[in-house]
TrEMBL record:
Residues 159-268 form the Serine aminopeptidase S33 domain. This is Serine aminopeptidase S33 domain-containing protein. PANTHER family: ABHYDROLASE DOMAIN-CONTAINING PROTEIN, ALPHA_BETA-HYDROLASES SUPERFAMILY PROTEIN. SUPFAM superfamilies: alpha/beta-Hydrolases (SSF53474). It comes from Gossypium tomentosum (Hawaiian cotton). Belongs to the AB hydrolase superfamily. AB hydrolase 4 family. One of its GO terms (molecular function) is monoacylglycerol lipase activity. The chain crosses the membrane at residues 20-47. It comes from the Eukaryota. Gene3D superfamilies: alpha/beta hydrolase (3.40.50.1820). The keyword Transmembrane applies. It holds the Pfam family Hydrolase_4. Keywords: Membrane, Transmembrane, Transmembrane helix.
């Protein structure tokens, strides 16, 4: 037998061809299941899902972690009487990811049907701030007409809670509506303090809001206290709204007319937040989404912002850092972008207030 032609034929076959032929012998279903498994691992890590962790703990959840001044009688009283703070937290199993929870609320979390009663508050510099009220009567009695007056009576002693939304949110945001609706259903009078230029209200001055601007909140609190002196006054801030609220509490301390306050998801250190939001692909999606929201805000008020800030830079901004550099820094007359974050960080430093409670170290504020 002539082995030379056979040997030559084998030598002419590429090892890659042999590998491909071997791989072709593996059933397609094996590739499908392998690809699906790898995709699930990637998705699990990318979305930061913690279902397996919950499963290993038999869905018992994690104990609530509290940081507060143990010498404060007020803090001890709140912790003792708030049973939810003594329990454990377990996320809904099929929403065991912060990103899934955010997406669900944004796209599928239908807000309750409600209609606010609007009061337009004029700031000291001519700016206009929309205050949207919601009461127990509005929730129980059905939708009410939009009125240019507040819902509470001057002699009413029903507690009032001021809600300060996040960076690009207003009273129409789903999570704000859920919060306002549930508070009103519990018997509170709720007023959502929309940031300047939001809530369908035009900018009527050259002043815009930011994470370090507390003067609007201060004037609104003083205004509501003056209008309804018999009603206990509370405040709830979310995200940037929480940052503004905590900074205000630090500035006014025990002189604030607020009886209590809660800061939800407050970005305590904006320098660290700025770095974190550019660290991973998922965080960069949030960065881009917030930037688009701010650009939409700028578009609504182009006639003013194009005169005061770098409009071309605003339009081309691809991140919060870019937007702050072309808008926030210019509007507030900061020398450089780092000054914005450093100043806000200093302004939000821990301070003593409310019977010695250390705000800067608390995950939950009362």
């Amino acid at each position: 037998m002539d082995w030379e032609p056979l040997a030559a034929a084998k030598a002419s076959i590429s090892p890659y061809d042999l590998l491909f032929q071997a791989l072709a012998l593996i059933p397609f279903s094996h590739y499908f299941f392998a690809a699906s498994f790898l995709f699930l691992i990637f998705l699990y890590s990318f979305l930061e899902i913690h279902f397996l962790q919950d499963l290993l703990t038999l869905f018992r959840g994690d104990p609530v972690t509290l940081n507060y001044n143990s010498c404060s009688e007020l803090a001890q009283s709140v912790v003792a009487n708030c049973k939810i703070l003594q329990g454990r937290y377990l996320a809904t199993p099929w929403l065991s990811s912060p990103h899934l929870q955010t997406a669900f609320l944004s796209f599928l979390g239908r807000p309750p049907p409600l209609t606010y009663r609007r009061h337009l508050f004029r700031a000291f510099d001519g700016g206009t701030i929309a205050l949207d009220w919601l009461t127990y009567t509005d929730v129980v009695g059905g939708t009410s007409c939009m009125l240019d007056s507040s819902a509470a009576l001057k002699g009413d002693k029903t507690p009032i809670v001021i809600v300060i939304p996040g960076l690009t949110s207003d009273s129409a945001a789903a999570y704000v509506k859920h919060l306002a609706f549930n508070l009103a259903r519990q018997g509170w009078n709720v007023v959502v303090s929309n940031h300047r230029g939001l809530g369908g209200v035009s900018l009527t001055s050259d002043c815009c809001y930011n994470a370090g601007w507390t003067e609007d909140l201060r004037k609104i609190i003083d205004h509501i206290r003056c209008e309804y002196p018999e009603a206990p006054l509370y405040a709830v801030g979310t995200s940037i709204g929480a940052n503004i609220l905590v900074k205000y509490l630090g500035e006014d301390g025990a002189n604030t007319p607020l009886v209590g306050a809660a800061a939800i998801c407050s970005p305590w250190d904006l320098l660290i937040c700025d770095r974190f939001i550019n660290r991973r692909p998922m965080q960069k999606l949030y960065d881009r989404a917030l930037t688009v929201g701010l650009q939409g805000y700028a578009q609504l008020h182009q006639s003013i912002l194009s005169r005061l800030a770098n409009w071309e830079g605003i339009e081309k901004s691809s991140s919060l850092r870019d937007f702050d550099n072309h808008a926030t820094r210019v509007l507030r007359k900061f020398e450089c972008l780092s000054c914005v974050s450093v100043l806000w960080m200093i302004q939000c430093a821990p301070v003593k207030l409310f019977h010695g409670m250390n705000v800067g170290s608390m995950k939950i504020l009362f």
